[in-house]
Amino acid sequence: MPKKNRLSEKDTTHPNSSQKKHNSTSSKEAAAIAVILLLAEKWPSEIVPRKSVREFTGGLYSPGYMGNMDSLGIGPEGAFCIGRQKVYPKYPFVDWLIARIEA
Description:
Order of helices and strands: EEHEHHEEH
Helix content: 25-40%
Number of strands: 5
Number of domains: 1
Number of helices: 4
Mean pLDDT: 83
Structural class: alpha+beta
Radius of gyration: 13 Å
């Protein structure tokens, strides 16, 4: 069963990332999006290993939580395994984080 793409309605402003650009975007949401995009730009790889999610998100999400989200089918798009390690492509992971912003 394919995962539901919750970002299909958003405009893209980064070549690989969705970002809210609607009139309803608050300054808090815009600031949060900017921080998330900054994290992505500083990340040294194009993948985010599940075991490094805590580091990428500054402690907001744990590897166990991400495993639960994947099990429920509501985790980031494009997750795959390299050996026994689950990884997420960086910008789909960023899209997932941006979609979860509440201001």
